[in-house]
Design a protein that fits this description.
The complex is a heterodimer of chains A (411) and B (255). Chain A has 411 residues and is mainly beta. Chain A has helices spanning 2-18, 33-39, 361-368, 379-390, and strands spanning 21-24, 44-48, 52-53, 58-60, 64-68, 73-75, 83-93, 96-98, 109-122, 125-127, 131-136, 142-144, 147-149, 162-168, 171-173, 176-178, 184-190, 193-195, 198-200, 207-210, 216-218, 221-223, 229-235, 238-240, 243-245, 253-266, 269-271, 275-280, 283-288, 291-293, 297-301, 306-311, 314-316, 320-323, 330-332, 337-338. A 13-stranded parallel sheet of chain A has the order 3-6-8-10-13-16-19-22-25-27-30-33-36, with no helix packed on it. In chain A, strands 9-11-14-17-20-23-26-24-21-18-15-12 form a 12-stranded parallel β-barrel. Chain B has one domain (2-252). Classes of the chains: A mainly beta (411), B mainly alpha (255). Chains A and B meet through α4 of A and α3, α7, α8, α9 and α10 of B.
Chain lengths: 411, 255
C-alpha cells in the first residue's frame, strides 16, 4: 500500500515538474496574456492576476490551463471575440469576459470553442456578449458555474447564452444565464447533460433544443423567458426535476414539445405559465409525477400525439387542465389528481369512482374561437361547463381519467 | 333629503333580510378564503357571487322594498317635498344599506385576505354592480304599478344580464368569427355592466395572457388610466341613466 502511495506521489511531483506555471500581471515579468500563451508549452498553467486586459482576440490551440485570480477582465471592446479555443484539454477558470463583438449576421461569441475536445469553462463571468459561449463541432466540453448576462434587445440582433452545435458529451452545469436570446441552445448535440442551471429573462427560449438525441436535462430552473423552453425533433430526452416558472404571455409555454419521441418528462414543476406543456407530434412520452399549478392551460395536447402516458400528476389551480384540438385521443390520462374533480370514492381505494373528463367544454370552444375567451368565468360559461360535465357531447369522449386520484400525490 | 334617506336606512336595517344578506356574504367569503389554498382561487369563486348573487339580491330587494314602502312614499308626497327628492332619498337609503352590507359581508374578508389590486377592483365592481342593479330595480318598479309584474320584470332583467346576454355575445362571436371582433366585443362588454365588471376583474387577475390577441388588446385598454376611466364612466352611466329615467317617470306619474 505504501508503495502505491509513493508511486502516486512521485507521479504528482513529476507532473508538477513537467508543467510550468507562467504568471501574467502588471507586477509580473509578463504583462500580456498573449505573450504568455506564446511562451506556454502543452500542459502549462497560465496564472493571470487581476487587471483589465485589452489584447484583442486571444487564441488557444494547445492544452493549457488558464486561471484568473480575482476575475481579471478580458475586454473585447465590442470589436472582437474575446477568446477562441480549439484543440484539446483546455481549462479556463476565473475570468470576466466583457463586451464581445456584436453582429446581426455572424455568430460572434465571448468564448468561441471550435473543433475541440475536453474543454473546461469553469467559474467565469460573461457580461454583455453577443453569444456567451459558442461551442461547435466539439466533444467532451464542460461548461460549469458561469454567470452569463446579456443585454438582448430584439430577437434578430441577439445571440444565445450557451450555444452548442454538432457536439457530443457536453456537460452544462450550474450556470446562470440571463438576458440573451436563448439561454441555452442545443442543435445536433448528443449524449449531453444540462444540469442545475438557471436560465431566466431571456427574450426567446430559456432552453432551445433541436435534433439533440439521448440528452438529459435535470434540475434546471427556467423562469420568465419570452416563450419558455422548446424541445423539438428529438428522441430519447430525459427531462426531470426541472422548474418551469412564470413563462407568462400571449405565446408563452412552460415547455413546447414538438415531434419528440421516446422521452421522459417526470418530476417537473410547472407554475404560473400560460401553457404548462404544449405537445405536438409527441409519441411515447412519459409524463409522470409533475406538478401543474396556477397555469392558464396545464397541458395542450394536440390530436397528433400518440401513446403518451400522463399519469400521477398533480393538477391544481389551473384555469384549464387539458385542452386539445380534435376528438382523436391516443394517450393515457389515468391516475392523476385533478383539483376540479367532484366525484366520490365509496370503496376508499384512493381512486374516484366516477371518471373525470379533464377537457372542459369551454376549453374546446376557445380552441375553435379564441376571442370567445372574454366570456371566461361568466355564469353562462359555468352553466355550459356543468351541463357538458354531466353529459359529454362535444368534448372528446376518450380523453378521460378513469381512475382519478382523490388526494394529491406527495411529491 | 338626508333625513328621509336616514329613515329609509333605519327601516331597512331593522329588516332581517338585509342582516341575513350580510351574514350570508360574510360566511361565504370567509369560508372561501379559509378553504381554498390560494387567494386567487377564492377570488375566482367569489367572482361568481359578485356576478350572480349581488345583482340578484340588489334587484329583488330594491323592487320589493319599493312596493312595500308605497304607502310611506304616498305619505311623503303629502308633505312639501319635491318628487325628485323623495325618489332619490329612497334610492340613497336602499343603496346605502345594500352597500354597507356588501362592505361588511364581503369587504372585510377581502381586505383581510386579499388586500391587493385584484381585491380592490373586486370591491369596486361589487359596489358599482349594487348601485347599478338598485337603480335598474327602481326604474322597473316606478314603471310597473303591479307588484308581481314589477318583480317579474326585475328578475327578467337580472336573467338577461347574467345569462341571456352572454349567450347572445357567444352567438355573435361564432357567427362572425371570420371578422376581427376585438373592438366589437369591447363595445358589447360596455353594454352589460356584469360583463364589464367581470372583464375588469379578470384583467386585474392577470388571466389576460390566456386571451391571446384579444387579451393583449384588452389589457392595453383596461390596464391604462383611460381604461379605468372608461370602466368607471360606463358604470356611472349605468347607475345614472335608469335612475334618471325613473325620476322622470316618477315626476309625471299619477300615483
Amino acid at each position: 500500500m505504501t508503495r502505491f502511495y509513493l508511486l502516486i506521489l512521485s507521479l504528482v511531483i513529476t507532473s508538477r515538474v513537467l508543467s510550468n506555471t507562467i504568471r501574467v500581471g502588471s507586477n509580473e515579468k509578463l504583462k500580456t496574456i498573449k505573450q504568455a500563451l506564446l511562451l506556454a508549452k502543452s500542459g502549462d498553467t497560465v496564472l493571470v492576476q487581476y487587471g483589465i486586459y485589452r489584447e484583442g482576440s486571444l487564441t488557444i490551440t494547445k492544452p493549457l490551463t488558464l486561471l484568473g485570480i480575482g476575475f481579471p477582465v478580458l475586454d473585447g471592446e465590442n470589436k472582437v471575440e474575446n477568446l477562441v479555443i480549439s484543440g484539446k484539454d483546455v481549462t479556463i477558470r476565473g475570468f470576466q469576459f466583457r463586451d464581445s463583438r456584436h453582429s446581426s449576421s455572424n455568430d460572434y461569441a465571448a468564448i468561441d470553442i471550435i473543433d475541440a475536445t475536453n474543454i473546461r469553462i469553469d467559474n467565469n463571468k460573461i457580461i454583455n456578449a453577443h453569444f456567451g459561449i459558442h461551442i461547435a463541432n466539439s466533444t467532451y466540453c464542460t461548461v460549469s458555474n458561469n454567470f452569463i448576462k446579456g443585454q438582448a434587445v430584439s430577437e434578430q440582433s441577439a445571440g444565445n447564452g450557451i450555444h452548442i452545435w454538432k457536439s457530443d458529451h457536453a456537460t452544462i452545469e450550474n450556470n446562470h444565464i440571463q438576458g440573451h436570446r436563448d439561454g441555452i441552445y442545443f442543435e445536433f448535440v448528443t449524449q449531453s447533460v444540462i444540469r442545475k442551471n438557471t436560465s431566466e429573462n431571456n427574450i426567446r427560449y430559456g432552453l432551445h433544443f433541436m435534433f439533440s438525441h439521448q440528452d438529459q436535462y435535470i434540475g434546471n430552473i427556467f423562469r420568465n423567458n419570452g416563450t419558455g423552453v422548446a424541445v423539438m425533433y428529438t428522441r430519447n430526452v430525459t427531462m426531470t426535476g426541472n422548474h418551469f416558472e412564470k413563462n407568462w404571455g400571449n405565446s408563452s409555454y412552460g415547455i413546447l414539445l414538438k415531434d419528440i419521441t421516446d422521452s421522459d418528462l417526470s418530476g417537473n414543476q410547472f407554475t404560473n405559465n400560460t401553457i404548462g406543456i404544449f405537445m405536438e407530434g409527441g409519441n411515447r412520452i412519459k409524463v409522470e409525477k409533475n406538478i401543474f399549478k396556477n397555469n392558464g392551460w396545464a397541458m395542450k395536447i394536440q390530436a397528433n400525439c400518440s401513446d403518451n402516458f400522463i399519469n400521477y400528476n398533480n393538477f391544481s389551480n389551473n384555469t384549464f387542465d387539458i385542452s386539445t384540438n380534435g376528438t382523436m385521443v391516443l394517450s393515457d390520462f389515468s391516475r392523476n389528481y385533478w383539483d376540479k374533480y367532484e366525484g366520490y370514492d365509496i370503496n376508499k381505494d384512493g381512486f374516484g369512482d366516477v371518471p373525470y373528463h379533464p377537457v372542459s367544454l369551454y376549453a374546446m370552444v376557445i380552441e375553435q374561437n379564441p376571442s370567445s375567451v372574454i366570456l371566461l368565468h361568466s355564469f353562462m360559461v359555468t352553466l355550459l361547463d356543468k351541463a357538458e360535465k354531466a353529459m359529454p357531447v362535444l368534448t372528446p369522449e376518450n380523453l378521460v381519467d378513469k381512475q382519478p386520484l382523490m388526494k394529491p400525490i406527495q411529491l | 333629503m338626508f333625513k328621509v334617506s336616514r329613515y329609509v336606512f333605519y327601516d331597512i336595517i331593522k329588516n332581517k333580510i338585509i342582516l341575513g344578506y350580510t351574514l350570508f356574504l360574510f360566511v361565504v367569503s370567509m369560508s372561501m378564503f379559509r378553504m381554498e389554498d390560494s387567494n386567487k382561487k377564492a377570488i375566482l369563486s367569489l367572482l361568481t357571487i359578485i356576478l350572480i348573487v349581488i345583482p340578484l339580491v340588489s334587484v329583488v330587494f330594491s323592487t320589493i322594498h319599493y312596493y312595500n314602502s308605497y304607502e310611506f312614499i304616498e305619505l311623503l308626497l303629502s308633505q312639501p317635498l319635491s318628487r325628485t327628492r323623495i325618489l332619490l332619498s329612497e334610492y340613497a337609503g336602499v343603496c346605502i344599506s345594500l352597500l354597507s352590507s356588501f362592505f361588511i359581508g364581503l369587504g372585510i374578508p377581502v381586505m383581510l385576505y386579499a388586500f391587493n389590486p385584484t381585491g380592490l377592483s373586486f370591491l369596486f365592481t361589487g359596489s358599482a354592480l349594487t348601485m347599478v342593479f338598485t337603480s335598474l330595480a327602481f326604474w322597473v318598479s316606478v314603471k310597473a304599478r303591479d307588484k308581481a309584474r314589477g318583480i317579474g320584470t326585475a328578475l327578467l332583467l337580472w336573467f338577461y344580464f347574467a345569462l341571456i346576454y352572454d349567450g347572445l355575445v357567444l352567438l355573435i362571436l361564432f357567427s362572425f368569427s371570420d371578422y376581427p371582433l376585438e373592438k366589437i366585443t369591447l363595445l358589447l362588454s360596455a353594454l352589460n355592466p356584469l360583463d364589464l365588471g367581470r372583464i375588469f376583474i379578470m384583467l386585474k387577475m392577470d388571466v389576460s395572457a390566456l386571451m391571446g390577441y384579444t387579451g393583449a388588446l384588452y389589457k392595453d385598454f383596461f390596464g391604462s388610466m383611460s381604461g379605468m376611466l372608461f370602466t368607471s364612466g360606463i358604470m356611472i352611466i349605468w347607475i345614472i341613466l335608469p335612475l334618471w329615467l325613473s325620476v322622470r317617470k316618477f315626476k309625471r306619474k299619477d300615483l
